[in-house]
Amino acid sequence: MSARPIASxxxxxxxxSVPIQMYSASESGAAVYFNWIHRKTxxxxxxxxxxxxxxxRVEKQDMVKGYEFSKGQYVLFSTEEIKALEEKGTGSVDIVxxxxxxxxxxLFFDKGYFLGPTKGGERAYRLLAAALKKASLAAIxxxxxxxxxxxxxxRPMDGGLVMETLHYADEVRSIAELAxxxxxxxxxELALAMQLIDQARSDRFTPQNYKDNVRTRMLxxxxxxxxxxxxxxxxxxxxxxxxxxxxxALKASLARGGPRGAAAAGARSGTKAARGKAAGAAKPSKxxxxxxxxxxxxxx
Length: 300
What we know:
Layout: E1 7-13, E2 16-24, E3 65-70, E4 73-77, H1 79-85, E5 92-99, E6 109-117, H2 122-135, E7 138-145, E8 148-157, E9 160-166, H3 187-199, H4 213-226, H5 246-255, H6 258-282, H7 286-299
Parallel strand pairs: 1-5
Antiparallel strand pairs: 1-2, 2-6, 3-4, 5-7, 6-9, 7-8, 8-9
Helix pairs in contact: 3-5
């Protein structure tokens, strides 16, 4: 299925304009969501707003937005006042500067979007992508949409362009707020740690090697529920003996093959559990047995 655009915009740098369409780079539908259901009727529950003081239900037309400037004290804003404060959507991604992409710390990244050219803008689109690649730079700018002003970074990818929304400086906290240890690292421990890293070292990141086991397990159990089967709890592994001595822990990790060895062991135990579940799933449920009996009687 081809990608569907979620918005249209124009990239502006200097006197050059590049009309583009935006596509989500991640799949939000991959998440598993549950709804609240009334246990007695089986109907879905709706959210209601209740007055915190009186406990009475409040209708939407009787509500107004407020900002809590002090504990329990609010300054109120009407819908018109809030709209007046919101950024007007211009549909323009205004580039301000070009910087090396590695200079933007990953803590600032929020969400990514693919940018594709619209009809008539292919030439300018290819020019911008080629120029950014040749210069080994990324474009920093701002984009107004849905009443907000976003800080964005544009970078080339496989002949195309990717736009990533960034956090503003006051939205990112500093690691200096933490109480970090100041002890010196022992050379022998550092050497063993480097060996452990080398055992699991890869030349490139391959995201296909990683799966969301929790999501997979949830979807399997949902299908089992739909089919009328009982949910069986996942077998829990016995907790491993905790090694308190750092040197002994490093040596033990190297002996078992490092992080990859531990991951492989977990994968093998997960495979055994999956096989057990598959064997259980192969056994027809009582409902399925009854359906087969009815089919046999009908054919007779």
